[in-house]
């Protein structure tokens, strides 16, 4: 009975988040860029089975991997010009925030940095897809923060990108990084939003 109630609760949460913000279409740029931390860099994946490689193979378009292990939103903001803006972006997938949470950066600071990153990308005419992270079901400051940023910047949101992956040993390479199957699930969630923006 408890297992059933747990599944029902999770289904309700996912159903509630099905109305996540959708991105405004790009008006400029040419490249698809994935920008973020070790989840973008592909730590834990086999060669060619990381998130960026999977998305590129599925959509038939090169995706620039601008991931760097250990990045916080602050360090990512510091390299935004060289890693993203200088590459003429059309669509940018952003996966950031996990290292902020691990280092206990105040959420207000995390989402101020994230909004600055997204706003500067959007001002170039590129579309943005935010991959959200969740760290709780009932009081999820992080999940709410991603949604707020997405709505304020007319960006798309893929909520709880690690939902059902984090904490499942069969989907994890270590305590914080997915394995090949885990990255496949992440790609499954991002692919529809990316395809929509590339039509």
Layout of helices and strands, plus pairs?
Blueprint: H1 2-16, E1 31-36, H2 38-41, H3 51-59, E2 63-67, H4 73-78, H5 80-83, E3 89-95, H6 98-102, H7 107-122, E4 127-131, H8 141-153, E5 156-158, H9 180-198
Helix pairs in contact: 3-9, 7-8
Question: Which characteristics define this entry?
Answer:
five-stranded parallel beta sheet; Rossmann fold; disordered N terminus; alpha/beta; 46% helix; 9 helices; 199 residues
Question: What would you say this structure looks like, in words?
Answer:
- The protein has 199 residues and is α/β, with parallel strands linked by helices.
- The chain has a single domain (2-198), classed as 3-Layer(aba) Sandwich (Rossmann fold).
- 46% of the residues lie in helices and 13% in strands.
- It has helices at residues 2-16, 38-41, 51-59, 73-78, 80-83, 98-102, 107-122, 141-153, 180-198, and strands spanning 31-36, 63-67, 89-95, 127-131, 156-158.
- Helix 8 (141-153) links the parallel strand 4 (127-131) and strand 5 (156-158).
- It starts with a helix and ends with a helix.
Order of helices and strands: HEHHEHHEHHEHEH
- Gyration radius from CA atoms, angstroms: 16 Å
Give helix % range.
40-55%
CATH topology: Rossmann fold
**Largest beta sheet: strand ordering:** 2-1-3-4-5
Short note summarizing the structure:
By secondary structure, the chain is of the alpha/beta class. It has a single domain (2-198), classed as Rossmann fold, CATH 3.40.50. Helix content is 46%, strand content 13%.
């Amino acid at each position: 009975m408890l297992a059933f109630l747990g599944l029902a609760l999770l289904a309700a949460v996912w159903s509630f988040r099905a109305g996540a913000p959708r991105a405004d279409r790009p008006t400029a740029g040419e490249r698809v860029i994935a920008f973020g931390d070790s989840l973008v860099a592909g730590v834990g994946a086999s060669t060619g089975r990381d998130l960026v490689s999977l998305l590129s193979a599925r959509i038939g378009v090169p995706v620039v991997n601008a991931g760097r292990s250990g990045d916080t939103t602050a360090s990512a903001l510091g390299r935004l010009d060289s890693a993203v803006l200088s590459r003429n972006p059309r669509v940018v997938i952003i996966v950031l925030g996990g290292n902020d949470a691990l280092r206990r950066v105040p959420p207000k600071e995390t989402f101020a940095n994230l909004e600055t990153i997204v706003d500067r990308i959007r001002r170039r005419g590129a579309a943005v897809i935010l991959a959200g992270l969740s760290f709780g079901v009932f009081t999820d400051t992080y999940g709410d923060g991603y949604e707020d940023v997405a709505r304020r910047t007319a960006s798309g949101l893929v909520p709880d990108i690690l939902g059902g992956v984090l904490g499942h040993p069969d989907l994890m390479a270590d305590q914080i990084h997915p394995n090949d199957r885990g990255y496949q699930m992440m790609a499954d969630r991002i692919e529809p939003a990316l395809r929509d923006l590339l039509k």
